[in-house]
Fold this protein.
Amino acid sequence: MNEQERGQDSFKTVLSQLALVMMGLVAVVLVLMIAGGVSDKYYTNQQSTKSLELDKQDAFAQGLTYEEYLRKRAEEEGLTRNEEMPPAQEEAATGEQTAAATDGLDGLQPLTAPGQVILEGPTPVVTQEEMDILRTKAAVIHTTMGDMPAEFNVDLAPMSVKNFFYLAEKGYFDGQSFYRMYPGAFIVTGSPTGRKGGTPGYWLNKEFTDLVPVAGALAYLPCLNEEKMASEFAIFMADGLGFGEDVTVFGRLTTRINVAEKCADSPATQEGYTADRVYITKVEIIDRADLPNQ
């Protein structure tokens, strides 16, 4: 083989190697593009799932089904686009009204969630007639994990019990999540924000009952410098947890404490907030005589 032929073979080898390198680079680019597309799709799906869950929580906070919530939002978006408002909606709302997003963290106003229906609260006095009626009532707390029947201590915590029935009758608890879980200790619900401090739109003066929460106890959690209470309450699953008058015990589960334990066993974040949504579907007010025995 002469010098010219060897030079040609060497050139062909270089070209072949360059071609292989180019093919490798193209393959790498294709793999990255495919991986990026899969990642984008996964992220989009995750965002869609999160958005759906947030929409459902907003629906629950407003006392609407998911379908009703979607229709309402579509109507509101239509009004925004047209910049028109029916005269009836321009009138000032009395009694209950729709809340704007408020933080309430400065202590100047109760903490509420965007779009939440604001309640005025019960009258701050419990008459003897109301006491007699409240003594005949009980409740069943229906949840996604089962039902929990409860009775109430009207004599020691009349305002707390009146407030609980008021909120139940308004459907306030419907869809409220158990947002903090302490397995073997207690679970917390009653905040429309899904975090500590949410209210129905009002506070009440805290009641002192001198009762220490034991297994099965229902107790309001204090707010606003420990001087007020609103709607957040805990269901206790054990005795001797160190709580005293800082919580207001107003009732107890008569049976099925295992349902609270099932709620508490749901996955939670490191901070104690629920990772999977576990919530109250409805608080049903019943006659005390109809409380289930088991």
Summary: The helical segments are 3-61, 66-82, 87-90, 128-134, 158-169, 257-264. Residues 38-50, 79-106 have pLDDT under 50 and may be disordered. The chain has two domains: 1-86, 119-290.
